[in-house]
Amino acid sequence: MRNLLLTLVCSYSILFFAPQVKAASENGKQALQSSYQLMSAENKAMQDDPSLNPAMFWVGDGQALWDTQVGKNNKSCASCHGDPKKSMRGVATQFPKIMNGKLQTLEGQINQCRVGAQGTSSLAYESKDLLSLTALVAYQSKGMPISVKETPQNKAELQKGRQSFYERMGQLNLSCAQCHEERAGLKLGGAPIPQGHPNAYPIYRLEWQTLGSLQRRLRNCMSGVRAQQYEYGSPEMAQLELFLAWRARGLPLESPGVRP
Question: pTM for the whole thing?
Fold first, then answer.
């Protein structure tokens, strides 16, 4: 454990005292880049080929859940929304969004439908069923650009998410921006630092050997800087997701993605 901590501290020291290198566009800011571009050819092929992408098993399970009637109202997702290939096309590009006066993530909206329309219980975050339904819905928008915009309705929530992104946290006193904005393109522990865009979630990480949500990845980062993690499904998580989606607007969705 001691050696692991020393390695992490040394890695962060090298990173944050290294010269800053930025791939600047004509306006002085980094051009948007998906972390897909940083992967090996083998990992890219795994994501691109549905027969090789492990996440497609969750998409298949999501379709089965979509068609299953549950709850006291004996309704399926299909009862209200029909064929997801038609009704869900483009939906994932708009989340998080304000729904009935509340900022809602895609997972949160799925649970809201389960409780309100189907009359059944919500699904736990990171559960197989919630990940499967999220993957199914997100898959219908694959290749479409993220379309989250700042509006009068979401402005306050967006500002809170922005604050979380730039605020230093944890024992290492680091912010999201210090890695994924100021030092994107440098390396940490031998791996390139991505810009931190959410355009491939939910993703199958080879490190996890399973599918995981954006909130799981955010909690991993918070743990990495020794900070208190936001709770799954919390307003703080939704606000940070909103800012990240706004920051990545225009990037095509790759859901469900594959990452190392």
Answer: 0.88
